[in-house]
Amino acid sequence: MKKKNIISKNKSIMSNSNKFLTFLSVLTLTVLLASCVNDDDYNLPDLTINEPMIPSDKTTTFEAVKSRLEQAQADGDDTAIIGLDEELYIEGYVISSDRSGNFFEELIIQNKADDSDPASDPRLGFRVDINVASLSDTYEFGRKVYIKLSGLTIGESNGVMVIGKGEGSDVEQIQAYEYKDFIMRSNEVVTITPKVISISGLSEADENTFIQLSNVQINRNELNKTFAGEQDDEFDGFRTIESCEESSTITLQTSTFADFKSLQVPQLKGSIKGIFSRDFRDDFNVLIINSTSDIIFDNNDRCDPIELSCGIATTQGTNNLFSDNFETQLPNSLISGNGWTNFIESGTEGWEAYTSGGSNSSLGISARVGSFRSNDVSTISWLITPAINLDTQDNETLVFKTSNSFSDGSNMELLFSTDWDGTESGITTATWGVLTDAYITQDSDSFSSWFDSGIVDLSCASGTMYIAFKYTGSGEVDFDGTYELDDISIDF
Questions:
Q1: What is the Cα–Cα distance from 307 to 374, expressed in whole angstroms?
Q2: By three-state DSSP, how is residue 144 classified?
Q3: Are 465 and 406 in the same domain?
Q4: Nearest-angstrom CA–CA distance, 32 and 26
Q5: Phi-psi bin for 8: left (phi > 0), alpha (psi -120 to 50), beta?
Q6: How far, in whole angstroms, is CA 186 from its chain's centroid?
Q7: pTM of the shown model
Q8: How many Å apart are CA 413 and CA 469, to the nearest integer?
């Protein structure tokens, strides 16, 4: 009986304890709810950014920083170092975004949101190298930032101006533990208006700035490609953007880490916005987009040239209509005579006769053209045959040979026209198509070899035809190379 009373007593104590714990739980929950809501006042986390207090007398311009670098380089230094005791700031706007993976551990900033007042305040940009990924989470496109230059170094990397930490003659990344001491966010986020410009109008001053190209398209020979997902795309994919208004091109550069790398390039024509820059080796100009939303190619009316393809013939004709091996030409003089039209549309370089031995030998006397170190902003040169009447015989063929001295950014095309009037003034207004079957030496070919065009069949064409060898330089005169031409023969 005594044992039973003890058990009942323990049960009573446990029951009272449970009731007390339940009471405490309800009381705690009530207090918590009351603390969260007070007269319908819902408090949100404070996400405001305190505007950095930057002394106005310590702020300098992008132009002044650029001049400081230029002065250092004139004095024989590769970089300009801003001393730790020198309190100095610049302010600008972020124009790059790594959200799509096409930029990595870098911010591109320019000094203005638009291109207003270009005379007194030229639009300029810098690349800021930072050892931090996902920078767009903090420094999004259009965000105004202040950069404290004290302790940083200004230099050039991959051909563009860059800000970072000095390491000898190099500019290295600002490290993750310190970058917020140098790059400060403003509350202000603005709309960035790109500078609308033609490809040929771009200059070094436009590097690291946001631009827009209009009435352009991807070259027709690359429409079957992705942005950067091809087997031979290593680190970056390079695709050719061509203007529909001028004979100018620029390279679209896409990282193989971009999330749109495997998408097919746009098939139509239109406008594209991006950051004007240089390739990794500083060989040629490139355009880098933040995302595919920067491309609006919505016009079906592409500006591709007419193409003529009769195929490759099995045998060369035995009756000659026109030929030239240039052996009668005077070396180092412009090609002339024999019915040729040697026309310089742009620049100072035309097709000239040359002779050379060694590893890059000519075939006796050959014709060549190139804009390398010409100091010409643009080079376009034509070498056009006399008229060939294709209606008086059948089975016409064309053969020639080409070589190059590192053609690099330059290009040679084999064109034809049936409506050119034979005058120099009419060349640029005539309709020129492409003879697509001929092989023209590529930049990847050995510079020491000559390559046969193949026996180009012309039998499917009719009328009076002019055939042109057209050379176009990219405008990068230290990168453009040379093409050589010889042993031309048109037969039936």
A1: 31
A2: strand
A3: yes
A4: 10
A5: alpha
A6: 29
A7: 0.80
A8: 6
Does residue 39 lie within any of the structural domains? Answer: no
How many domains is the chain partitioned into structurally?
3
Residue 202's domain is classified under what CATH number? 2.40.50
In a domain, 33, yes or no: no
Is residue 463 within 8 A of residue 390, CB to CB? The reply is yes
Distance CA 42, CA 415 (A): 72
Place of tokens 């650029």: 66
Q: What is the CB-side half-sphere exposure of residue 20 using CA atoms within 13 A?
A: 6
Answer whether residue 46 is part of any domain.
no
Same domain, 168 and 313: no
Question: Is the separation of the CB atoms in 367 and 400 below 8 Å?
Answer: no
**pLDDT confidence band for 478 (50 / 70 / 90):** low
User: Rounded CA gap, 122 and 67, in Å?
Assistant: 13
Rounded to an integer, the average pLDDT of 104-123 is 91
> What CA–CA distance (Å, rounded) separates 293 from 304?
24
Say whether both 228 and 369 belong to one domain. Answer: no
Model pLDDT for residues 382-423, shown as the tens digit of each residue: 999 999 999 999 999 999 999 987 667 788 999 999 999 999
Rounded Cα distance, 335 and 173, in Å: 52
189 and 136 Cβ atoms separated by less than 8 Å:
no
Choosing from 272, 299, 326, the residue where a domain stops is 299
* Cβ–Cβ < 8 Å for 166, 182: no
Greater pLDDT, 35 or 293: 293
Residues 226 and 337 in one domain: no
On whether both 165 and 213 belong to a single domain, the answer is no
Strand runs (DSSP E) across 44-178, as ranges? 80-81, 89-94, 106-110, 125-129, 143-148, 153-157, 160-167, 170-172
By three-state DSSP, how is residue 458 classified? coil
Residue pLDDT, tens place only, 145-167: 999 999 999 999 999 999 999 98
Three-state secondary structure call for residue 292: helix
Same-domain status, 266 and 137: no
Parent domain of 472: 307-491
CATH number at residue 83: 2.40.50.140
Q: Please state the length of the chain.
A: 492
Residue 43 lies in a domain: no
The secondary structure of 69-89 as a DSSP string is HHHHHHTT-S-EEPPTT---E
